[in-house]
Amino acid sequence: MNHLFDLIGNTPLVDLSSLVDRPGIKLYGKLEGQNPGGSVKDRAAFSMVQGALSAGRLAGGKRIVEATSGNTGIAMAMIAAALHIPITIIMPENSTEERVKTMKAYGADVILTPADRTIEYSRELAQEMEDSGDYVQLNQFANDDNWKAHYRTTGPEVWRDTNGQLTHFVSSMGTTGTITGTGKYLHEQSDRVKIVGVQPTDGSSIPGIRRWSPEFVPAIYDEKQVDLKIDVSEEESVAMMHRLAKECGVFAGVSSGGATAASLKLAETLDAALIVCIICDRGDRYLSTL
């Protein structure tokens, strides 16, 4: 019988090639919604909590505080509940109702910050709370245990499950842990593999996909691990989210729609390729916005 944490990772690939009108292109989505907390963030959250525990940072009943746009908060709340660690999550008030309620269901305290100040203000508030001495911030944006989780797990899984035939890996860029860690591992396996980051077009607001102002670029981000960046709009991401559900039976979130849309743009430039994109969570977290 498995412990909850044993169920994190080893998520399946699903064939999405029917979306691509090019016979030489194979497209697969890595279904991270199959993680017990429902997203790719389970990997990083577990790694960061374990790192903090090993370092003794959570001794004496210290409370975790973390800024998030949603999925990391849910993952941390789940893990904190299983380990009986108190936790406070800070997120913009325009986060979906489903995300807020899920965190609270796990027992987390949730602080909502003004939407117009974006997650950048949520990050500032989390830092202020840690500076008060009463909280421990795991800080997914600057914590090496974030990207290392993907170096240890996501990258090896993608390489293994494509039998080393992978040519392109596509991931939305938010905290950048997924693309940095997975990209580092895949680059070490073959110079042939290209790592593609997905960013929002100017003016687009896409949960899980960010274009950070210079002072807020995540400290864990390693530019060397990204070979190409593709911009997608909010409209393209939402439309592809619907296509994934209606044409492929894959009900995923908006950032997954963005990553898939970027993969199709990439495919238009190639004659032959095996592309894997991250389907980072499940679409049931966005029902109130549909």
From TrEMBL:
<keyword id="KW-0808">Transferase</keyword>
<protein>
    <recommendedName>
        <fullName>cysteine synthase</fullName>
        <ecNumber>2.5.1.47</ecNumber>
    </recommendedName>
</protein>
<dbReference type="Pfam" id="PF00291">
    <property type="entry name" value="PALP"/>
</dbReference>
<feature type="domain" description="Tryptophan synthase beta chain-like PALP">
    <location>
        <begin position="5"/>
        <end position="281"/>
    </location>
</feature>
<keyword id="KW-0028">Amino-acid biosynthesis</keyword>
<feature type="binding site">
    <location>
        <begin position="174"/>
        <end position="178"/>
    </location>
    <ligand>
        <name>pyridoxal 5'-phosphate</name>
    </ligand>
</feature>
<keyword id="KW-0663">Pyridoxal phosphate</keyword>
<dbReference type="InterPro" id="IPR001926">
    <property type="entry name" value="TrpB-like_PALP"/>
</dbReference>
<feature type="modified residue" description="N6-(pyridoxal phosphate)lysine">
    <location>
        <position position="41"/>
    </location>
</feature>
<keyword id="KW-0198">Cysteine biosynthesis</keyword>
<comment type="pathway">
    <text>Amino-acid biosynthesis; L-cysteine biosynthesis; L-cysteine from L-serine: step 2/2.</text>
</comment>
<feature type="binding site">
    <location>
        <position position="71"/>
    </location>
    <ligand>
        <name>pyridoxal 5'-phosphate</name>
    </ligand>
</feature>
<dbReference type="InterPro" id="IPR001216">
    <property type="entry name" value="P-phosphate_BS"/>
</dbReference>
<feature type="binding site">
    <location>
        <position position="255"/>
    </location>
    <ligand>
        <name>pyridoxal 5'-phosphate</name>
    </ligand>
</feature>
<comment type="similarity">
    <text>Belongs to the cysteine synthase/cystathionine beta-synthase family.</text>
</comment>
<dbReference type="InterPro" id="IPR036052">
    <property type="entry name" value="TrpB-like_PALP_sf"/>
</dbReference>
<dbReference type="InterPro" id="IPR050214">
    <property type="entry name" value="Cys_Synth/Cystath_Beta-Synth"/>
</dbReference>
<dbReference type="GO" id="GO:0004124">
    <property type="term" value="F:cysteine synthase activity"/>
</dbReference>
<dbReference type="InterPro" id="IPR005856">
    <property type="entry name" value="Cys_synth"/>
</dbReference>
<dbReference type="GO" id="GO:0006535">
    <property type="term" value="P:cysteine biosynthetic process from serine"/>
</dbReference>
